[in-house]
Amino acid sequence: MKALLIIALLSAVSLASLAQQDQNLFEVYPLGFADGRSAVEMVKAMVGSTGNVSLDEKNRRLLVFTTEEKHNEVANLMRKLNVAPKNVRIDVRFSGTSRRQDTGAGIGASGGMVREEGITRTRIRVSPRIENTTITTSSDVTQTLLVASGREGILRVGESVPYVDWLVDYGLQWGYLQQRISYRDVGSSLIVEPTVIGDGPLVRIRLTPELSGLVDGNVYRTRFARVATEVTVQDGQTFQIGGLDKDSEFYSRFLIGFDRSGNRQALDITLTPHIVSASGGP
């Protein structure tokens, strides 16, 4: 008798589930400005196990199968998510210092010359002056990068990379590269991804180093996600990349370039984010 009661209850649950599925409707929701992955997670939690949600990334839309009541809730959510993102203007300042060392010999005030007169000949002894000169030059350049919140921008660090072999070894060690490759025309960049938290004034900025160059004639890019840096700062607050303690060994080699004279130049980079409206104003 008890077994029959359990079977009857299970059958009733199954019939109720089938009846609810029969009431489900299919709707398509354009994503607009909404982030697809975030929208999928929120809508899945909303419709529960009796519905179905999938992301059509190519056409930027959600495919939702659920009840009419849930569709009303999903429609309200999508209207809230489909809001133009705020723009973030990032002022980037590059401060570079390069050193050149010149070594040479000559005769001058600090050298010496001794003349010894003889009967049949004159002997001259010369003490050369050895010069070892270090010339330090500096540069200061400011650039502006405008990126929509949640999107990516590219910040070019160097047109050539002195420590490319070390960086390739690092990529092999952490699995970013499967085999040793030989870059040509390799450059370094920082992928900048700002996200405005709520309506501001806090901005979360993620910086991911990237090498790009030609490998067998094709453009090849390597992102070092393990050493990505993420900071949260106030609107208008300046922070320094070169001064971060995290992964200092990596950045001490990555934030190096060549100046126009071919000398190695250590780069000190500071970023200042400013939240702006879609029209470009603050």
Q: Tell me the total number of β-strands.
A: 15
Which structural class fits the helix and strand makeup?
alpha+beta
Termini separation: 74 Å
| Main beta-sheet strand count, sense and barrel state | 5 strands, antiparallel
Roughly how many Å is the radius of gyration?
Answer: 32 Å
What is the oligomer described by this structure? single chain
Average of pLDDT? 77
Shape: elongated
Secondary structure: helix percent? 10-25%
- Write the H/E string, N to C: HEHEEHEEEEEHEEEEEHEE
Strand content: over 45%
The stretches of 5 or more residues where confidence is low (pLDDT under 50) are none
What's the total helix number?
A: 5
Helix and strand topology:
Blueprint lengths: L1 H22 L1 E6 L5 H12 L4 E5 L4 E6 L1 H14 L5 E20 L5 E6 L4 E6 L1 E20 L4 E6 L5 H10 L10 E13 L5 E14 L2 E6 L5 E6 L4 E2 L7 H7 L1 E3 L5 E13 L6
Antiparallel strand pairs: 1-3, 2-3, 4-7, 4-15, 5-6, 8-9, 9-10, 10-11, 10-12, 13-15, 14-15
Helix pairs in contact: 2-3
Main traits of this protein?
single chain; alpha+beta; 5-stranded antiparallel β-sheet; 282 residues; 5 helices
Folded structure, characterized:
The chain has helices at residues 2-23, 36-47, 68-81, 164-173, 248-254, and strands at 25-30, 52-56, 61-66, 87-106, 112-117, 122-127, 129-148, 153-158, 184-196, 202-215, 218-223, 229-234, 239-240, 256-258, 264-276. The chain is an alpha+beta fold and 282 residues long. Strands 4, 7, 13, 14 and 15 form a five-stranded antiparallel β-sheet that branches. Strands 8, 9, 10, 11 and 12 form a five-stranded antiparallel β-sheet that branches. The longest helix has 22 residues, at 2-23. The radius of gyration is 32 Å and the shape is elongated. The N and C termini lie far apart (74 Å). The relative contact order is 0.14.
